[in-house]
Structures are given as structure tokens and as C-alpha cells.
Amino acid sequence: MAELVDDAGYLLSPAGSKLFGKYELGKQLGCGAFAKVYHARNLRTGQSVAIKAVSKQKVFKGGLTAHIEREISIMRQLRHPNIARLHEVLATKTKIYFVMEFAKGGELFAKVAKGRFSEDLSRRYFQQLIAAVGYCHSRGVFHRDLKPENLLLDENWDLKLTDFGLSAVTGQIRPDGLLHTLCGTPAYVAPEILRKKGYDGAKVDIWSCGIILYVLNAGYLPFNDPNLMVMYRKIYKGEFRCPKWTSPELNRFLCRLLDTNPETRITVDEMTNDPWFKQDYKELQFQQVDHDFELKDCANGDKKYLNAFDIISLSSGVDLSGLFNFPGGSVSGERFISADSPERIIERIKEVVKGEGLKVVRQKILGVGLEGRSGDFVGVVEIHRLTEKLVMVDIRRREGGVCVGVAPGREIWKDKVRPQLSGLVYQPEREVGGS
Fold it and tell me: What's the CA gap between 6 and 120, in Å, rounded?
């Protein structure tokens, strides 16, 4: 069914202006080739949210399924005051809906387009940007498309980093220790990307941050030309000049950020000692939650069952084939559905892993942590309630800082552990036969 939009630009569903009976949809905030963003209100809490509606068909035809998969997987892990939060993901046969934190202040780009910022204001937003980027890097996430259009402002005029569709994670790094995918916005791209010999994800993000800081202070780009190749030559050579109102301290700092040599370019850690950056700098204090290995007690929590967001995010490699309704999808061998009680499953898993030299090192009602013979942390087993009768058993381990399916220990799981757990696997025909 086609979307209906009224004269005020409000998206209407057949039932009025509600999505899943949960969100009241408002006016369109933005539009791209594959998605539209709307303001919405949570009908239960009254909270304002932004909802990005992504067309499954356009994404599939455009070959961007991996980008959507990665964006969901990454944003599920990130919880930082300067990163726009992804609340949940909902899905229909034709669309995926990202329900995100609403940034009332709009894009930073719109503000700087009206005129350059003062040096103090530029520093304030740059410090918030680096806080977000440094946090991402500590989680093994590299944004790769940092620009003012991807920086939002909330009601307190604090910065919120968004749009992780082009992001990379440590698992994508090749054996040479570098990333190789060419991506980003031309005016913000680092010179080493142009060399096409691989690049460090953290260092190209720092370069882009330098471009953003220059734009905030100057009101225009440091490298710009109608001819794209001419602009790339300027970037490659690092040819830029700061405007006359730039202080000597900021000038020196920008030169360290826009150093064409990634080996000598300033790092996030080094910035805290820079005289310009550390002025009025206060390190953010917030509770960091390790979402990769958090053992959730769903029995006592306020979320009784998994929603579409959880099911997508828990998929090994974030396999969206089921949601996209296209053939060829498969379920990871490290996950299965069971009709047994969580307690029975936990006890059985403890018996099996003990026989394979693993041991349980911590336990909650619906999850256990596992440790290997040498004392190294192997991973977790989590049980998630799907319905009153069914649960999903998810077995994961850490790899390169990102939670993925058990790969290095695959043979132990496949050949030894899995066969011993086969009796726990849900068989639909049993239920049909007994009805």
C-alpha cells in the first residue's frame, strides 16, 4: 500500500497517523534515496522520536543490505551522550523503521551555513565530537563519513553523532591491519584513502574531524574546487590556509589534525594535552554498558519478549534475510529455538560445556558466561523469550571487540557441543501433532 501524506506533510497510515499503534507520525524531517525521516511521538510516554523509514526493495536493489545490517549492529552497541541513540527497530513486509532519539535542534550543518561559529563555540562542539568519536574507536567502530550533516543538536544544543551506514568495525580490517573500502564524502576524505593502499579507520576519522573544525571556525571548506580532481590534489598535498581571525593555537592544532601523514597525525589521546583543545575541557562521566556481553535478566525486566530490533541485532553477522523476505537466508549454527524452560536449558548447557573443558564463570537467570581451559573469557550464552512457549538460545563470543558468532571455536561447537544439545531444539511438528 502506498504511503499517504496530507497537505502539511504528515505521513498517514490506513489507520490514521499511527505506526504499529505505538507511534504517532508527524511531519517529514528529511528524505534520501532509500529512506525518509519523520518526527513522531510515542503514544504511551509522549516522548518525541525520529523514525527513519527504509525501503527494503530499494535497499536490496541498490545492494545496500550490508550497510543497513552494519548500521543496526553498530548502533545497538553505542550508548554515549553525544551519539544519537537507536531505541528500537520495527519492520513490515516493505519497510524497516529505525526509531531514534529526536534531535530538536536539527543539523549542525544548517547552523554553520548561516555563519561561522566563534572559536569558543567551535571548540565546544569539537570537544563533544571527539568525545563521541573516541568512544566509537574504543568500541572498534570507525564512522568513515563524518561531516556537519551527520551531526545533530538536541534541545540543549549539545551535539549528537548519527548516520553509521558507512561505518566499519575491526572485523573488516584485512590482514595488513588496514581498511580498504573507498567511502566518505569527497571534501572530507583523508589523503590516504585517495592513495588506495589501505588506511587506518581511526586516523581517517580524525582527518574528517579536522575538516569539520575548520568549517566551524571559517564557515567554508579548507579544500574545495568545482573540479573534483583538483580538489583531490589539494587534499593530497594538504594545501589549505586558515582565515585571518584564527588564533595561532587553533592554527597549529588544525595543522596537526590535517597532517597528510597519518603516522604523525594527532590522535584522540594526544588531543587532551593540546593547549587549544584542553581549554575548558571536561571529560564526560557516564555509565558505560558493555552491551556485547551484558547478561540480561529478561524475567525481571520491563521487556518481556524480543522485538524485531532484538531479533535482527542478535543475528550472527546481523542477517536480515528473514526481514527482507528474500530467499537464500540461513540461521546461524550458534543459535536455536527451544520450547524448554530457561532453567532446563542453562543446566543442560552447563553439563555439556563442562565435558568439553569449559566452565561457567558467572550466571544470571537467563544467561551464563563461559571460560576456557587457560582462563580466557570465551563468551556468553543468552536466552531470550520470544513467546510464552518459545525462547531463543544465543551463543556468542568476542572477536575484535565486536560481538559475533563463535568462529574460531566452530568445530568444538559444531562437532561436539551442538549434537549434545539437539534434544533442546524446538521441533514445530511436535506441537502440531499434539494439538
Answer: 43
